[in-house]
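Weekly puzzle thread! Below is a chain. First person to post its structure in token form gets bragging rights.
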Amino acid sequence: MKPMRPLVETDVVATVIDLVFFSTGGLVCAVESAKVQGLRKIEESPAPSMATLLHFPERAEPANHPPRQWLLRLAHPNGTLTVRVDDPVLHERIPATALYPLPPLLEARLVLPGVRGLARWRKPDGETLAIILDPNAFKWVCM
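Winning reply:
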């Protein structure tokens, strides 16, 4: 029988979380991938933009280069919440250590619905902070 060796840092498997990242109102946001029920191209849809739900101003884009938009379908306690989001929309697995909850004072004073924290995300073109959202906190809009 081999003697047990001490556990070293390389033996520990990093805990990860799957997130879906997207842009809205010129900012990068993310939701837990388990909350995403689907993604499809926008056709004639009256779905609100995520920026509207967050009370962000819509980003002014040049008419000749508007961002591609998608309909993101999110699980909500009252049904499915369908919102418009901007490209890029990416599913990524990040380490749990890249998540930062909101400090209690900021959380208590924040008037934006659904904001739960920040995630440090390493994109191919650099690193950014993404706003972590909880779709359950949004006013339900059936589409």
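Puzzle host: Confirmed. Bonus trivia for everyone else. Strands lie at 16-24, 27-32, 36-41, 69-76, 79-95, 99-101, 115-123, 126-133.
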